[in-house]
């Protein structure tokens, strides 16, 4: 088959067959199809989009381009979660211990962060000794032993997606629903979980800025997952301000621990419970009307916190971090209050700017090769709808490099908008599918 004909067909608005998509993608991965032809095909998709079947077929080709992780040797119902990314998103650190303490199996492969803040792997590695690079046998052994393990993603999963994304990034074809959905689900379906719950974020700190786009992405990914035989659900959540109060790796670990002790911020708790509830219902381990009660009980009883401690110990970390995070986790040399220049109410917060402030301090990566400073970050004290006095602290900056503080402070202050009249607090969960 001629790749020219595959491109022409898509350019003219007709759907490609699975065989055509496979020929193009496999040829590209092998170096037999040039990037200029794939670029033309991606641009044709950008303007003409894909059918549900095309999207599912593209996902299948992507996930079959590399290693697939067979979890059949792991006991129990395997549950997984994916977030489209946000600022202060430490849900996995709270969610995993909760569902594992309820008897579900949480075998998660997570990534490192690129951009605002670190990824789940970076956050966990801020715990002294915690290892996220695990051989497959060790990963399986830990999961079978305690019901939970979190490791870094293998480079062998979905290599086609890595090549496609790099090309999309330089050809202005990143933000197309079918391409986004197949990219995410190609990696997610390569791990053989039974249940997948998606956290699709929308707002200033999210990839999908508009709510309608976030909903469309959620529906597209759900369709792909169901076509591949997975039990699926999606929560569309707000990212027009950071989730929780802490933004930064060790800071977020500390907040996750506090949440499992029942002392965390309300929004982090609300979102985690919503995702956990979907996992419990889809896994059918209890009556749907009892799911939320089960989740609350495992936190109140301390079982979820105990499960986190078991996870930390099993992966080489210092388990005392659960009892005394202030002493065990790395801490920043400097701590500065960022004070409000206005009196009134917080009208809006640009979550992305808060994330960039944390990245400037060293909590995130601008380039893949950049290192992470686990101790630094931002604590958000005032959120949308809160009343604030002139000179009252809006946030706290934790820094190790005094020269980075002023730049981070400027970005942080620029993220806030104020109103003289009362402002309604933001809705956290927009929709659950």
UniProtKB/TrEMBL annotation:
Protein name per Swiss-Prot or TrEMBL: Thymidine phosphorylase
UniProt record, GO biological process: pyrimidine nucleobase metabolic process; pyrimidine nucleoside metabolic process
One Pfam family recorded for the sequence: Glycos_trans_3N
Record-linked SMART domains: PYNP_C
Subunit composition and interactions: Homodimer.
GO cellular component, one term: cytosol
The Pyrimidine nucleoside phosphorylase C-terminal domain, residue ranges: 345-419
